[in-house]
Design a protein that fits this description.
Helix content: 10-25%
Structural class: mainly beta
Low-confidence stretches: 129-171, 347-383, 704-708, 762-783, 1069-1119, 1132-1141, 1330-1473, 1817-1822, 1877-1884
Strand content: 25-35%
Number of helices: 24
Radius of gyration: 48 Å
């Protein structure tokens, strides 16, 4: 149920004059409208519009269209504004209230109009609790607009971290849920040499993953658990995830844990967390920080809700981008005090009553707050207690934070990110809004009968609370007269008009102001008398006291009653008249049916004569004869007395009986006379109506005054036949009991500011005498006499008179009881104390009463303005008057009338829809209007025209009654499907009845349902008068009747078609051809781009050979198969093949029927499910069949002279069943619900079509929930007899029967009849078939199905043409050159005529003879073009000799040439079953002709060249779609390519892959997984189909990884030698992730100094790899007892560990290196550059270009240094460096370049020499220098170098000091010695 509360609107330019305004809303084509109000500036409605959703839940794509418009004016002129409200947030979380205030409206151009509307929208999913309970639960939470049309202030953006949003789901009844948790991978798990395993606890079920190795394990495992809980209970279910180390002991095994509840996932967008990283914390050390990260995906599936599309989890390692951190709660000690004061209204148990212990627990559950009214003025309140002070301080602080967040500035984030923060702030405000001390209980009003409680009504206390601060602080119902409905769950018993007040006694001085009348306090007692021996006496009454209260309990006589303390009597005792008995029983009635029974009696065997009492009523009381019955004043008799003969009486109206005593009436009456009968009677009836006049109001006033006037004591008795019975005023025969009521008024002695009634502290006191202190003896069983309770009465001066007018137009979709198909509905209208009924309409579920009910002079007490504010409800109850009595109850609606106090301003009401609630839920709708007119003294009501009188009733006036117009309803009755008979009777000849607007269309029956379930006549026309406005259009009802023997016609099923506006069409509407977008570029530009496109491949080939080679190596020469298109469509660019080019595949994430543009594939005819009549409400209805048909509704001209518009259903396909070949392609399935205990299943496929079933048990995929099937099933069937294709996935078990996982059903008939051509998807490209070349100059071909099914000659193969010998070879026939080619076929139906060719011109001329038709064509250097031979087209070519001739066209007849071409050139693969092969039965040109024929368009006309076509009045050129010649191989003829482009322009179904949801009948509405598949349907009438598509799954390719470990550096030392040196005995182990059984290790480098080791060791790891998925395929058996292998798919990851070898203890772990081959980090060139985080080089040439990671599958080889890590103290640190060389080879390369493990033979590629390792430190005598090198130099090389440098400098300084004095002395003795030497040298 979708409810829309339209509160108010704002009209800036409103004047209050002119027509009124109303809000028009439309949801899913169903319109609703509010009432019309005056066009003021702020019109107010406060009206709720409802849309029952039945079994169709709200979808995220649904929206609500709103229009504010003037009444009575068309849309463009009267439109004041419109808007659209998306309902996605309600679909995601039904517990929210969508509160939209001041929603701006826009005009048709999208410009704001200035008008706004305020509304509130709520949603109750199908199957939830009743609307009232759901509304009360949803009132706790309010959601803002999901997509605000205007600016909304930012909340919470400036506070840093906003509070988390964690609202509760909507509570309700228990539902089916499934919680799924997918563990993806771990990252940076703490620990060394760990083998982590993940345990997931969902509720009470624990799951365990596989054991992995390393700190970054990969799992990809799914765990699911089913729940049957309410949403509120489900939200509290915990999810506990732990990561354990399987190697450690149990106490130290925990690595980290994370806790959350299902509510976190439930309230997430789409009810799922996709690829979220969890920050793991140690449960015993929460302050230790993060222990690693675990990536998970969680989802909550709810039965009946659509599952959002699956999100592909990206491979990004950015943890912070999607990180979920646990909430850290500091534990503290708290004390909970609970005080129980009292309990009320506790139910009494049978046998005993006592207290029980109540246990209150405080745990991890979130606090629950009850919603109470918020404090109106926060600053003005004075805290009374400490708790109030703390709450006030918390509220002020929260408001300050909220204000600062709102005024901080504009939001920096988008609306989707801001709205959750704002909702979280609103949640905190709502949490602090609750009043913890608001302990005032609610007010309960009980309807009791004696001591039995019949019904109750609950009113919250805060709605009645009165406050002295301001009227705004009072409750909404405080002191206001309102209507309460007393009832029990599912039933309504009474309507109560009440006024209530709740407040403090000290503030009760204003109570009389709220009551509008004075309060009087009385003492009351009843005087009882009994008739004994013909006299009335009050003494010694047997079984009853003389004085009692109104209930009969013993009381005190009036003389012994005294007023309470502080009160005194105000007047004497007086008899109070029984006002409830003085009421006019006929008040408010317009028509009364009077009855008088005529009685006769006789003696045994005598004649009938008048009885002792000749005239009585139905109870036997004497009444005047019918001739003497007077007509009261103000009434007139409409007809004379008549005898009632419709009841159980004889022909004369008599009924007979036997009296027990003389003069007593008979206790039982019979319609047939017997001899022993002594009495008989018959019923006389007459009708009288009330006169209309002004004297009646005065009469009502006199009656009112009579009720409040005193009465004589002797006339105030009321009588009864027994004590405890019903009392009445007039004394009757047999009355033996009577009583009268005594009242005495009392007033307080002193005036007080408190209301007088609150001064009553107890009951009246008794006499202060010794006798009065004794309790009077009471009769047995009655107890003691009690003091009477005072009676408080509120007296009104005079009532107000109103007139109620009810306009009942129609009821819609009534639900009949039992197995009835129709009903005889009658509407009973109750208002306060008056009621009327409509007439009975037989045999309909959509009765059109068109009746107005008038209630005159309805007296209502109080201020008329209070009636306007809170008018009494009008209760409309619909009954099925199928027999006598009140009839069967169908539904009830509570309607609020429009009150007009000033009748002069009255505007006619507007019909509205009111929901009918039945015993089991929604029971239909009522289209009616109600208005309450105040009858003032001026007589304005009498001036309003009375509704017209038609056929004995008032009808709806023209201003209110819908306007009708002439409409045509075309019915396409195609057929009936899947009918089931009733009462085990087979269906023989079903027929259909279509009812709409009071007319019935009967369609001829289907004579033979087993052979042809379609109707013999399919189109019909029905002329109707329907309302102009959409919301008044009645539904279309369908009834299917069967024809059995002896005229028996049982009803098999029925359906109600709503939203007829979906079928509205324009009378002259024609289908238009969509025009494609024509490129705007000029021809020269197109030619230039074409030349560039041709040159680009050559340039790329010359310039990028290296890149292409690498790409080819990565793809490993994978074929261009169907999977290439699949992976390209799934957006996996490295997975697709280059040969696909523009050939693409469309992958739909939903069913093909769910794609919006395909209209559910029901454009030709829709499927209407038929349901069994009288199905129980509340149950999920099970269809008993289907009706295939369609409706078309359009207006007809009113003028008979104007010709009617053309019919719509004209071009219809043949309705005869047709044989079809169905190919079902099952590609894969995912998200399957596990069926085995290991969390997996063994699925296999089963296909069912009619009685045929395909699929074998042994073809299952073991141990997986994401199987890849890649299978094609081919089955034949007759459509529509076998129209439902059922695809089921079953779980293979060791012993049958197998358990069904889920299934889906496809309606093949809809796909075959759809005009979107859904039977076979259109490929993007048209490719023809080409025979492969087997050698140079040698042509060979295979003729598909052969030429004439036998080939040329007598063989299947036609032969080959040898370019070297220029001769025809032969295979199974002689085809040599110059000789006869041989006869074609076997029966001589056609063949080649004898022809001898010339060697220069090819084969020569020949005559083709096919079934009597002759055509000539010359085969030579040019094959004649344009000739067609029985549908075969020869195109231009250069002859067979040149090899460029092409043959394209259809087969010869039903046999002959397969489509294709042949040409000479490079060898190509034949498109026999590849992705590009045309598999449809019709070529694109013929498919275009077929499209034109089905849509009533002229046939397409192609140009001679085939590059242009005229179709649908438009001309299409091939250049519109192709800018140049095709770049792909075998493009086909131009006209075929053009035809294919035109077909795509019609938006037909392309070549696709649909994703269908699987459901299981054991868990209805709960998704069990999805399957990706497609279906091809080939009718036999169109010829044989093309070859099937090969979708066999790709085989994993074998690769070999060769890893050479060269050296290690700086590995952590495990030991210390005697010389103080750090040494280690290093060895390295390695394996591929998931292949631990293939673990390899190097030899040990003993006593490696400083962690430097040398190995020269080769690891060889063979593995299987899927290039498309980038996963290693690991088939293995989980256990030795496993029957099947489990195929694991893991990322290729190399794990290398460095260990320290120990002889007498466990080896020490030194470090680990994990290398993912697809994301390999670049290695360092030198060991000193190797680090955990690569350091950028300061030199430009040393910087790494490109991304930080590369794929080894692309680069093939890598060598360098990689860092090893170890975990210590919760962090990673560098523990060493490894020098590795990695090489990846495919299977062929590994065979060509073999290499052994380690240094074993063959030791090649490369050749590994034994490492040169230093001797141990204990052998330094044999190698002293080497020992010094490793012992001293490696440790102190920096110090040694510095010391040597200092020594050198010191020597230089000493030598200078030594030689400086001699040099200086030489200079002093002979300064010119150097010059002389120089001069002497120069002379020589």
């Amino acid at each position: 149920m979708l409810r829309l509360l339209v509160a108010s609107a704002h009209l800036p330019a409103a004047t209050g004059a002119g027509p009124g305004v109303h809000v028009y809303a439309r949801f899913r084509g169903v319109p609703r409208s509010t009432r019309v109000v005056p066009a003021e500036r702020s019109p107010t409605w406060n009206e709720t519009l409802a849309w029952p959703l039945a079994t169709r839940p709200l979808r995220p794509t649904d929206s609500l269209a709103l229009r504010l418009q003037l009444w009575g004016q068309p849309a463009p002129q009267g439109l004041l504004g419109a808007t659209t409200v998306p309902l996605s947030c309600l679909a995601e979380d039904p517990g929210l209230l969508l509160d939209l205030g001041q929603l701006p409206l826009r005009d048709t151009q999208g410009h704001p109009t200035g008008a706004t509307v305020s509304l509130r929208c709520s949603y109750v999913p199908p199957g939830q609790v009743a609307a009232g309970k759901a509304a009360s639960q949803r009132s706790e939470r309010v959601a803002p607009c999901p997509s605000p049309p205007g600016p909304i202030p930012a909340v919470g953006t400036a506070m840093g971290v906003a509070p988390r949003r964690h609202p509760k789901p909507a509570a309700g009844k228990k539902e089916d849920f499934q919680v799924r948790v997918r563990v993806l991978e771990g990252h940076q798990l703490q620990g060394n040499a760990i083998k982590p395993v993940v345990t997931v606890l969902i509720g009470e079920q624990r799951f365990r993953s596989r054991i992995r190795a390393g700190n970054n394990p990969y799992y990809n495992e799914v765990f699911s658990q089913h729940f049957h809980l309410t949403p509120a209970q489900l939200a509290a279910v915990p999810i506990h995830i732990q990561v354990l180390n399987s190697r450690a002991i149990r106490a130290d095994a925990i690595i980290g844990a994370f806790k959350l509840d299902v509510g976190t996932v439930y309230n997430a967008p789409g009810r799922r967390l996709s690829g979220t990283w969890l920050s793991l914390q140690h449960p015993r050390h929460p302050d230790a920080g993060c222990c690693g990260y675990l990536r998970v995906s969680a989802a909550v599936l709810r039965a009946g809700e659509p599952v959002p599309e699956r999100e592909e989890v990206a491979g990004s390692r950015e943890v912070e981008a999607n990180l979920l951190q646990p909430t850290l709660l500091t534990p503290c000690v708290a004390t909970l005090q609970l005080r129980i004061y009292r309990a009320e209204e506790l139910p009494r148990e049978t046998g005993h009553f006592g207290w029980k212990w109540c246990i209150f627990g405080v745990g991890e559950h979130p606090p629950c707050h009850l919603p109470r009214a918020a404090l109106p003025v926060l600053q003005a309140q004075r805290p009374d207690t400490r708790l109030d002070a703390e709450l006030r301080a918390a509220r002020l602080l929260l408001l300050q934070h909220l204000a600062s967040a709102a005024t901080a500035g504009p939001p920096r984030q988008a609306w989707p990110a801001l709205l959750p923060e704002a909702e979280a702030w609103l949640g905190r405000v709502a949490a602090l809004q609750a009043e913890p001390q608001a302990g005032v209980p609610d007010v309960l009003l009980w309807l009791r009968s004696g001591t039995r409680r019949l019904a109750c009504a609950r009113v919250p206390a805060h709605r009645l609370a009165c406050s002295s601060r301001s009227p705004a602080a009072c409750g909404r119902l405080c002191g206001r007269t309102h209507t309460l409905m007393l009832g029990t769950p599912g039933h309504l018993h009474a309507q109560l008009r009440v006024r209530m007040w709740l407040g403090r006694v000290a503030e009760s001085q204003k109570l009389p102001h709220y009551l509008e009348g004075p309060l009087h306090v009385y003492a009351e007692t009843y005087e009882n008398q009994m008739k004994i021996l013909g006299k009335w006496t009050g003494r010694a009454l047997p079984g009853h006291p003389g004085f009692s209260d109104v209930t009969g309990r013993a009381g005190l006589p009036r003389e012994r009653i005294h007023p309470p303390k502080g009160w005194h009597w105000d007047g004497p005792w007086a008899v109070e008249p029984p006002r409830w008995l003085l009421s006019d029983a006929e008040a408010g009635m317009e028509e009364v049916l009077e009855e008088v029974y005529e009685n006769q009696s006789r003696q045994h065997g005598g004649e009938w004569g008048p009885a002792t009492v000749p005239s009585t009523d139905v109870a036997g009381t004497a009444v005047p004869p019918k001739e003497e019955v007077p007509c009261p004043q103000g009434w007139h008799v409409t007809d004379d007395w008549r005898v009632e003969v419709t009841e159980a009486v004889d022909e004369a109206g008599w009924e007979y009986g036997v009296s027990v005593a003389a003069g007593d009436p008979s206790p039982a009456w019979h319609p047939k006379e017997e001899t022993y009968h002594t009495q008989r009677r018959r019923r006389w009836l007459r009708t009288r109506r009330r006169d209309s006049g002004a004297q009646e109001q005065e009469q009502d006033t006199r009656v009112f005054l009579q009720r409040h006037s005193p009465e004589a004591p002797d006339k105030a008795w009321e009588y009864a036949s027994l004590w405890g019975g019903c009392f009445h005023l007039q004394r009757r025969a047999g009355d033996v009991c009577r009583r009268r009521c005594w009242h005495r008024r009392m007033v307080p002695e002193q005036s007080s500011s408190t209301a007088a009634i609150f001064l009553l502290e107890g009951t009246a006191d008794a006499e202060a005498t010794p006798e009065g202190k004794q309790v009077a003896a009471a009769p047995k069983g009655r107890g003691c006499s009690q003091h009477p309770m005072p009676v408080i009465l509120c007296t009104f001066q005079r009532p107000s008179s109103f007139q109620l007018r009810c306009y009942l137009f129609q009821a819609l979709e009534l639900k009949p009881h039992s197995t009835k198909a129709t009903a005889d509905p009658v509407a009973h209208v109750s208002f306060v104390h008056v009621s009327q009924s409509t007439r009975v309409l037989p045999g309909t579920l959509d009765p059109v009463w068109d009746q107005a009910l008038l209630f005159h002079r309805v007296l209502l007490y109080g201020d008329p303005r209070g009636v306007r504010d809170e008018p009494p409800a009008v209760v409309v109850e619909v009954f099925d008057q199928d027999g006598g009595g009140a009839g069967s109850f169908l539904g009830r609606s509570m309607c609020t009338p429009k009150v007009w106090l000033d009748v002069g301003r009255r505007q006619p009401p507007r019909l509205q829809r009111y929901a009918l609630e039945g015993p089991g839920g929604p029971a239909g709708e009522l289209l009616a209007a109600f208005e309450l007119l105040h009858e003032a003294e001026d007589g304005a009501v009498a001036q309003i025209s009375t509704p017209p009188w038609r056929q004995g009733t008032f009808s709806i006036p023209p201003g209110i009654r819908p306007v009708l117009r002439l409409m045509a309803l075309e019915v396409l009755a195609w057929g009936l499907r899947g009918l089931r008979g009733r009462s085990l009777l087979p269906v023989r000849a079903p027929s259909l009845e279509v009812q709409c607007g009071g007319q019935v269309l009967r369609i001829p029956p289907i004579t033979d349902l087993a052979t042809n379930p379609n109707f013999p006549i399919n189109t019909f026309l029905l002329t109707l008068h329907l309302p102009v406005e959409e919301e008044y259009v009645p539904p279309i009802r369908l009834r299917v009747l069967d024809t059995q023997g002896f005229g028996y016609r049982p009803q098999l099923g029925q359906a109600c078609v709503q939203c007829q506006m979906w079928f509205c069409r324009e009378p002259d509407g024609e289908e238009r051809l969509p025009r494609p977008r024509v490129p705007a570029s000029s021809p020269n530009a197109a030619a230039a781009w074409g030349r560039i496109a041709q040159m680009l491949p050559r340039v790329t080939a010359e310039k990028g050979d290296a890149g292409k080679d690498a790409e080819r190596e990565e793809e490993d020469e994978e074929e261009g198969d169907w999977w290439s298109k699949f992976y390209m469509a799934m957006r996996g660019t490295p997975k697709s093949h280059r040969g696909t080019h523009r050939d693409s595949l469309k992958v739909y994430n939903c069913e093909l029927e769910a794609v919006p543009k395909f209209e559910g594939l029901q454009d030709f005819c829709q499927t209407f499910p038929l349901y069994q009549p009288g199905e129980k409400q509340g149950d999920d209805p099970v269809p008993v069949g289907e009706f295939k048909g369609l409706f078309c509704l359009y207006p007809l001209p009113e003028d008979p002279g104007v010709p009617p518009p053309p019919r719509h259903f004209q071009e219809l396909p043949p309705s005869q069943p047709q044989q079809c070949l169905v190919r079902v392609y099952i590609v894969r399935a995912f998200d399957l619900s596990p069926r085995d205990r290991n969390g997996l299943c063994d699925p296999y496929v089963r296909i069912s079509l009619g009685a045929k079933t395909l699929g074998q048990r042994d073809q299952y995929v073991p141990n997986t929930v994401e199987p890849v099937f890649g299978r094609m099933f081919e089955v034949t069937g007759t459509i529509p007899l076998d129209k439902d294709l059922r695809v089921s996935l079953l779980d293979h078990d060791l012993l049958p029967p197998d358990q069904e996982i889920g299934s889906t059903t496809i309606d093949l008939e809809n796909r075959l009849l759809s005009r979107f051509r859904a039977h076979c998807g259109l490929p993007r490209l048209y490719r023809t078939w080409v025979p492969p070349r087997t050698g140079k100059g040698l042509w060979d071909w295979e003729c598909g199905e052969g030429v004439g099914m036998e080939g040329w000659g007598r063989g299947r193969y036609g032969g080959h043409w040898d370019m070297g010998t220029k001769r025809w070879g032969h295979r199974h026939g002689d085809m040599e050159m110059g000789r006869a080619l041989g006869a074609w076929g076997q029966g001589g139906t056609g063949g080649w005529a004898q022809g001898y060719g010339d060697k220069g011109d090819g084969v020569g001329t020949g005559t083709w003879n096919l079934r009597g038709h002759r055509d000539e064509g010359r085969w030579g250097k040019g094959v004649c073009g344009g000739h067609r031979v029985a549908g075969m087209r020869w195109v231009h070519g250069d002859g067979l000799g040149a090899g460029n001739g092409r043959w394209d066209g259809d087969r010869l007849g039903t046999r002959g040439w397969a489509q294709g071409n042949w040409e000479q050139g490079a060898p190509h693969r034949a498109c026999r079953a590849g992705p590009g092969r045309w598999r449809d039965q019709l070529s694109p040109s013929r498919a275009l002709e077929h499209l034109a024929r089905t849509r009533g368009l002229p046939a397409p006309e192609f140009s001679a060249e085939g590059t242009a076509v005229t179709f649908g009045g438009c001309t299409f050129l091939l250049s519109h779609f192709e800018s140049g010649p095709p770049t792909y191989h075998h493009p086909g003829a131009p006209w075929e390519r053009l035809a294919l482009h035109v077909l795509h322009a019609w938006h037909l179904v392309p070549e696709h892959l649909e994703t269908r949801t699987l459901y299981n009948s054991a868990q209805p509405g709960l998704e069990q997984g999805k399957v990706q598949m497609w279906v091809d349907i080939f009718p036999a009438s169109l010829g044989p189909p093309g070859p099937p598509v090969d979708i066999t799954p790709r085989k994993p390719q074998r690769y070999e990884l060769r890893c050479v470990v060269w050296n290690t550096r700086n590995v952590d030392a495990g030991d210390i030698s005697t010389a103080g040196q750090k040494i280690s005995d290093i060895y390295i182990t390695g394996w591929l992730d998931g292949l631990e059984e293939q673990k390899q290790r190097t030899d040990v480098h003993y006593r490696a100094l400083q962690g430097d080791g040398s190995f020269n060791w080769r690891f060889v790891f063979p593995f299987q790899y899927l290039v498309a998925e980038r996963r290693c395929v690991l088939p293995r058996k989980e256990h030795f007892w496993s029957l099947d292998e489990t195929v694991l798919k893991l990322p290729p990851k190399l794990i290398l560990q460095v260990w320290d070898n120990d002889k007498f203890s466990a080896d020490d772990f030194l470090g680990v290196l994990e290398l993912e081959l697809t994301r390999l980090p670049h290695p360092a060139r030198r060991p000193q550059d190797c680090a955990l985080k690569p350091r950028p080089s300061p030199w430009p040439w040393g910087r790494t270009q490109g991304p930080p990671h590369f794929s080894l599958f692309r680069q093939k080889q890598a060598r360098g240094w990689w860092p090893c890590t170890v975990h210590e103290g919760g962090t990673q640190r560098l523990s060493g460096k490894l020098e590795l060389s990695l090489e990846l080879l495919n299977e062929k390369e590994a065979e060509e370049r073999p290499a052994g493990k380690g240094r074993e033979e063959p030791n090649t590629y490369p050749t590994l020499q034994p490492p040169v390792r230093p001797d141990s430190s204990f052998l330094w005598l044999w190698a002293p220098l080497r020992a010094l090198r490793y012992a001293v130099w490696q440790r102190h090389r920096c110090r040694i170098t510095a010391t040597l440098a200092l020594l050198l400098l010191l020597l230089l300084l000493l030598s200078f000091i030594y030689s400086a004095p001699g040099y200086m002395a030489m200079k002093l003795v002979n300064p010119l010695q150097g010059l002389h030497l120089f001069g002497a040298g120069s002379k020589h």
